[in-house]
Amino acid sequence: MMRGVKKIQIQRKSFSPRKSTQFFSFLTCFLAIMLCLGCGKNGMSGDFYSGADSSSGAISIPQNMKPAPTIEITEPGRGKYFTNTDTTVTVKGKVQDPKYAITSLKVAGTSLAVPQNGQFSTQVNLKPGLNILWATAKNSEGGRSISVVSVLQGDYRKDTLLIPNAAWVQVSQKGLEKVKQKTLPMLTTLDVEQSLRNLNPLYSGSIPLVGSANVDLQILKYTNPDILFKLNQGYMDVTVTLSNLDVKAKAYGKIFGISYSLIGNTGASKVTLSAKVYLSVQNGKLNASFQNTNVLLEGFYFTFPNSNFLNFFAKLAKNIIKKKIIQAVKSTIEQKLPGFLSDMFNNLKKPITKKILGKDLEMTFVPQNANITPSAISVQMDSNVRVIGASSLFQAPGSFYTPSYPPTLTIGATSDFTASLNDDYLNRVLYTAWQAGLLEMTIDDAFLSKMSSSSSSFTSSIKLNGGLILKFYPELASHINNTDPLSLEIKAFLPPIVQMAGNPDLLKASAGEIEIGFIIHQGALKRTVMKVRAHISMTVSASVSNGQLSIQFIGRPSVFGDVTEEPMMDIDESKVELLLNVVVPIMMPQLLKSIQGIQLPTLLGISIGQVTMQQDGPSGDFLTLTGSLKTQ
């Protein structure tokens, strides 16, 4: 009969929202936010464990724990999935104590009458997300045991389907001024000259028995290109200006049978193109199109060296050449600028890849809708995540999913952008990593040493060896030695879940049915000391740094756990509480570190300056970032 351990009660520090002033890359019209769970500063310090070496005597373990009843939840099964129509679950189990009277029995905090036959059953309410179901029994000597199982309740979306409404982004009129700075270099490379050259001859005419004239473009130059964006309802006004347009033109032909060739000038002091830009989405591709395009030439001129005959032709050719310059400017900008704007958006479809434990995690965003209002351009996207070349390890209905409405926060006049990420997308990331085995790992001394050397935010002086186990269970001394290497083999049987929690905590993360195998290595022999199922919930916060979105633990997690295997001998499972108190802070940062530090996409060098984060959406399931853009 399995026995359980007590709930680990861990106090966590309070948390207040904070602004992030750190740099990270920003895609002009969309922010692809990725969840990254990691450890905080000094991950091994604090309330969990303050000893130095597990064999040095620094850990104080009481060896006379009170004898406890045995208790086991038999229904529901571990890791079961319930739908959102399952609002309650029947929790069944058995409890016994052959030596002492059982004085208290609780299931999910509700007291039950102690059954004479040892069989108990009760209804427990389910909530969306991870539900940690626990039953605890106490005897007349004060000994207490616990049995825990975790189940999921909610909607689920198959990983072959996109996550709808995964992300929304708004760029304000103020933010478009930053986009302008990255658009200007494109205007300096507009190949108006080639467009005009393709129209050569710009003019061709003749007078019978007198002569002929032809005009070809030679060189075209302009200075001080500029562009303005003005948001309106349903469209955006775009104005492009080119100053000091100067065209060197060659006039050639014959006069009374005598050939001639002269270089003249044509151009304008200022060229202004105005157009309305409309956005549309077709088959996941966002398109920018120009309508009502108009080109105005101010201060237009067309002159050649003094010649009455050529000046006569110049008068005939002036309006024709003016129209061809307008045509060249219009066709060049209409071809290049809409494509430039479309490319900015369509870069969103390019997969973002991060290598995790030797596997490529690929994230894809697909535009679904675009809208322009006087206050902002907004783009809505669906998304998916996959691990390239990986197969699913678990039978599951899909990632945790809560159908949601769009975010409601409007962009302020002083902000450059808002970017909102649905927590369904974060859960798809976690689900995909879990299905691909990225949350499975083995932690040993070599692993801890490598982790400490590669991360300044993780420190550990614990030695994973038999001495750590013997501090808790000296009765195992006939089976293991102090110096036997110890490893923790970790496997998650449910995907972690992230849910928006509102201020001040913002995010809640939970992970259930995490199996921790305590493995002793004696030469080539691997021996299992015990296996424990851990169930963990924690508060986390988000920040951005160096082009990445990260989420850190706040305070300490709340942990339940019970023993599922003890092959060496029957051990005092009430001490597992203390043992988990030591190993959880070692395990959790690295378990969730596998999806830490996802690089955000970059376009045109535009990045984000100051950022604030808050809960958003009618259902409260969006994480919205509001901030400023930087062009350097």
Characterise the protein shown here:
With 632 residues, the protein is of the alpha+beta class. The protein has a domain at 190-347: Bactericidal permeability-increasing protein, domain 1. The chain has helices at 173-188, 192-197, 308-346, 423-435, 445-454, 466-472, 576-593, and strands at residues 24-25, 37-38, 70-75, 81-82, 88-96, 102-107, 110-112, 119-125, 129-139, 144-153, 155-157, 163-172, 203-207, 211-231, 236-255, 258-282, 285-298, 301-303, 352-356, 359-372, 376-387, 399-401, 417-422, 441-443, 486-492, 497-502, 506-522, 525-545, 548-565, 607-616, 622-630. It has an eight-stranded antiparallel sheet. Strands 2, 24, 25, 26, 27, 28 and 29 form a seven-stranded mixed sheet that branches. Strands 13, 14, 15, 16, 17 and 18 form a six-stranded antiparallel sheet that branches. The longest helix has 39 residues, at 308-346. 42% of the residues are buried.
Question: In summary, what is this structure?
Answer:
This protein is of the alpha+beta class and about 625 residues long. Helix content is about 15%, strand content about 45%.
